[in-house]
Amino acid sequence: MLSNIFLLKGNIIDDINHLDIYSYPFDINAKEDKDFIKKIIEEHEKENREIINSNTKKFTLNSINYELEAPISLKIEDENIFIMGIDNQMILGLIFEEEDNPYDYKEIFEDLSNEMLNNEESCFFEDEFEIENFLITLFIDIRRYGDEILQQYPEIALQSSDIVKKVFLLGIDDVGKSSFIRRLKTGQFSENFFTPTKKFNIEYLQEENGQLAIWDMPGNLILRKNWLYGIQDSNIIAFMIDIANQRSFKESKEEFWNLVNRDNVEGIPIIIIANKVDLLDLDPHFREEQLLRTKKELMDYFQFDNLKDRLWKFIFSSVKTNYNLQKIVDTLFQLTEDK
DSSP secondary structure string, 275-304? Predict the structure, then answer.
């Protein structure tokens, strides 16, 4: 499984003191010394020298803007690494878990990198935001390939295609998405287990009705433009809001309708998860009446009744108390069966 992606950039790639280092989702520059990065550069230079000394033509992908070297596999400090040189000024690298074979990813790494770097809207690495967006996009697509094709194929291939449901789980930061998945998968909840995450993840949940492939998308502002990568292939969208934090309503509403109004999500069923009901000040004797009133207020504010030409449901939940979580799972299957 792909765990990290990085880019080393400099006018002279082997000058580590004048090198810009970018990575996602973990900071590879957080190590106390530069030995790790230095070894990557040394191995890259060593490979190039061996190619030159053997009089073998250096393989490069067909390019318009960038010359891309063929990826090479490295083992450095117990890290399983796949690197690709770009224009002799950059090194693009993938870090995998130990059991992975990087060459299983060779074709997808080459094809996606070439597609993203050599087209009319290619990345020119002019600012940090552009570089971060490039790395996140590439990470998501390669991770999806690994999770859905390489790792899950043997299991999924034994089932009919309509049993595996792909769920896009979205929402702004700190609404409870990762805690929701952890609760479903392990039955556990911890108040302080998660901090707002930059990490995109895919989790597979086996239920009586079949299997759910849940794409947990990071909710912080800078990463939201990456929400839609691959969303057109999903069976259902799950959008989570924090109903105990009214200050977040405006932002959640804007992001919800920005998402729904995209052409490539037209017709995809939606389940709206109104999370953190446990934090509402509800009177036990009038709980249902108060929830009905809260639902009407939320429906009016978010204008959910304007959803047209698609199946959708609104469900209250509490990840902390496990309230309605099984109902949400059942509804995910129901809405995709009715589609």
Answer: E-GGGS---GGGHHHHHHHHHHHHHHHHTG
pLDDT higher than threshold 60 for residue 82:
yes
Tell the residue number behind the tokens 């009905």, with chain if given.
292
DSSP 226: G
Fold designation for 159-338: Rossmann fold (3.40.50)
Q: Is the full-model pTM beyond 0.85?
A: no
Enumerate the domain spans of the chain: 2-151, 159-338
- Name the nearest CA neighbour of 241 among 183, 294, 282: 294
Burial of 70 from C-beta contacts in 10 A (0-12 / 13-18 / 19+):
middle
Q: Does domain 2-151 have CATH number 2.60.40?
A: no
**DSSP-assigned beta bridge partners for residue 82:** 73, 94
DSSP state of 90: E
Q: If you write DSSP's letter for every residue of 20-51 in order, what string do you get? A: EEEEESS-GGGSSSSHHHHHHHHHHHHHHHHH
Calpha distance 40→91 (Å, rounded): 9
The pLDDT tens digits for 215-266 are: 887 655 555 555 566 676 788 999 999 999 999 999 999 999 988 988 778 8
